[in-house]
Amino acid sequence: MAWLVTGGAGYIGAHVVRAFREQDIDVVIVDDLSSGHDSFVPEHVPFVRGSILDQELLEKTFTDHGVTGVVHVAGFKYAGVSVQRPLHTYEQNVTGTAVLLQAMQNTGVEKIVFSSSAAVYGTPDVDLVTEDTAKSPESPYGESKLIGEWMLRDQAVATGLAHTSLRYFNVVGSGYPDVYDTSPHNLFPLVFDALLAGKTPRINGDDYPTPDGTCVRDYIHVGDLAISHVAAAARLDAGQPIEPVYNLGSGDGVSVGEIMSTVADVTGIAFTPEIAPRRQGDPARIVASGELAARDLDWRMRHSLAEMVLSAWNARRQAG
């Protein structure tokens, strides 16, 4: 018996894989390395290189490794780029999920934890987002994640699929010195790369209606997020009641300005960020309640902002 982690060689997926192994739960990885790294795969964890669009490969993996459940992390995760590449986004995130679900149905795999996103909410008009906040995605990426949730819901009606979707917000930090965020679009890698290149990081807009004028976001540590994936899988394994969706949110936001100050303190590199124009569509504040996940999925903020920054900085520097 094992759990399959799609995208298990990526930044988030690699943390999920290690969280499973720390609980002595067998795991197997499928990843095409389009954004993942084989160096992130732990020794002695079976790794199948391939795409979730390859149904035959998935079915063989399920059968060969005795897979009983799936954590579906694989996907095209760049919201901004998805506007320019909508068909690619839908192929990877919608068609890929459909192929995965069909392979699961054909091989009798009946449990799945789905990596969803805060992008399903678009620009919410509430101070604190809950699972019931209106969904209004503003990119093909956000739309694809919402469609993924619908597919799980409908498959559950049709086949009894046991499922839950975890909506991520801003995932940062590192739980291991050899795994770090390599996205070219996320805030922490952008700031660190600028500092390591001797350049000045920048803030997009400082005239928002927030305490310091910069956007407020919900930053959560990747290790905390991984723990809740394992808790969700355990709940599904035990046949315990589970919500169809959970927000993995802090309940308390952090501004981009605060991030920059903390980065300067932690790294010891003094800088004053450049102020660039606002990016179109950036809401002033997105912060979510994590109460449901705290009740059911061992969700809590185990790391301070300084600890998140330090763990990410140490891992990035070790990578060279």
UniProtKB/TrEMBL annotation:
It comes from the Bacteria. It comes from Paramicrobacterium humi. One of its GO terms (biological process) is galactose catabolic process via UDP-galactose, Leloir pathway. Pathway: Carbohydrate metabolism; galactose metabolism. Its cofactor is NAD(+). GO terms for molecular function: UDP-glucose 4-epimerase activity. Transmembrane segments: none annotated. Its EC number is 5.1.3.2. Keywords: Carbohydrate metabolism, Isomerase, NAD. It catalyses: UDP-alpha-D-glucose = UDP-alpha-D-galactose. Belongs to the NAD(P)-dependent epimerase/dehydratase family. The keyword Isomerase applies. It is an enzyme of class 5 (isomerase). Residues 3-249 form the NAD-dependent epimerase/dehydratase domain. It holds the Pfam family Epimerase. This is UDP-glucose 4-epimerase.
